[in-house]
């Protein structure tokens, strides 16, 4: 039986799904070579030029009947792609999302494997293989198989493969959501880093800020004539740590999901992850000030990162921030970037389907949890599109010998194909 012969009865749909499951399982070894090919095309940020990688993906799509592709260039170095497999009947649209740019290549001499891609001992190594060219390879693999059964699909599956993500810019996913109608859907699955064992339904919000302290310069021998900006800054920084104690009123289903997932999730992400997900966190990234050791500093700056859990808003945290700084004259704050926490109900249909297919392929039921880091999934949630992150477990991400497990890479492509099939029937 093939897709052309399948009609609309439940028995026929079951048969075509079984056929698809068998095909993707037997063919999943192709994902390894595809991922190595993508890793071999540089797209690191800076400069984040993704045109060469976009051309390579276009070549792949050209060889897949029924796989449409559109290119959307937004900046001289930024290429974005929108791929589509359109079903024979009207229906819903499921979107897969991934970014083509990667972290920079740092200390190439520290690599013991080829940073352009190497398979060894059940692992696939390469710069960006986890974040997230392995995920993109899994998306492309799934799309190619879905194209072969498009006659039985009701609706369409779309992939938005974007750039400008590592810079947290606006010319990738955000641009497509605002200007390309096809980029929007009824649900979205992100292939960003994570794990097939932990599906991530939400993310914390964020504030990036710069603190500036002003003082009065004088020779260090004449301290009575000066005001030290560094001391003002240090006092303000110490006061700001109180923001970590801000009370959080998280929705019950979010709090319960974090609790249920704690053991499994922390086995991958480290002990303490659950507390981090529940609380406001504050870290100082840089501190600078002064001119000479024997000159009282007339200026000092510090940068900070504040992560905001579900149950709070940016406005609440900013108000608390300003309240704490009001006790420190001579210290001002500038907000460099802000965005709200986001989440999709953990029991949403697309998450349930994804979890069921993870269990089918991996023989183990995943847990559902919030995500510590940021991803473009937040932009889909801001657009009111239910979203979940299901990607590869990363090892040494952004560093020497970055790698993923081959078995998980192969499984991810199967999971994507089966989940899209289920969602579009």
Q: Can you walk through the features of this model?
A:
By secondary structure, the chain is an alpha/beta fold. It has two domains: 3-203 and 342-423, 3-Layer(aba) Sandwich (Aminopeptidase), CATH 3.40.630; 205-339, Alpha-Beta Plaits (2-Layer Sandwich), CATH 3.30.70. 36% of the residues lie in helices and 24% in strands. It has twelve helices and 16 strands. It has helices spanning 10-27, 30-39, 51-62, 129-147, 173-179, 229-240, 252-269, 273-278, 314-325, 349-362, 377-382, 406-423, and strands at 68-75, 78-86, 89-99, 118-120, 123-125, 154-162, 187-190, 198-203, 205-214, 281-289, 299-308, 331-339, 342-343, 367-371, 387-389, 403-405. The strands form four sheets. The chain has a six-stranded mixed β-sheet with strand order 1-2-6-3-7-15, sandwiched between helices. Helix 2 packs across helix 4 (129-147). The two termini are 18 Å apart. The model has no long low-confidence stretch (mean pLDDT 96).
Q: What's the helix and strand layout?
A:
Blueprint: H1 10-27, H2 30-39, H3 51-62, E1 68-75, E2 78-86, E3 89-99, E4 118-120, E5 123-125, H4 129-147, E6 154-162, H5 173-179, E7 187-190, E8 198-203, E9 205-214, H6 229-240, H7 252-269, H8 273-278, E10 281-289, E11 299-308, H9 314-325, E12 331-339, E13 342-343, H10 349-362, E14 367-371, H11 377-382, E15 387-389, E16 403-405, H12 406-423
Helix pairs in contact: 1-12, 2-4, 4-12, 10-12
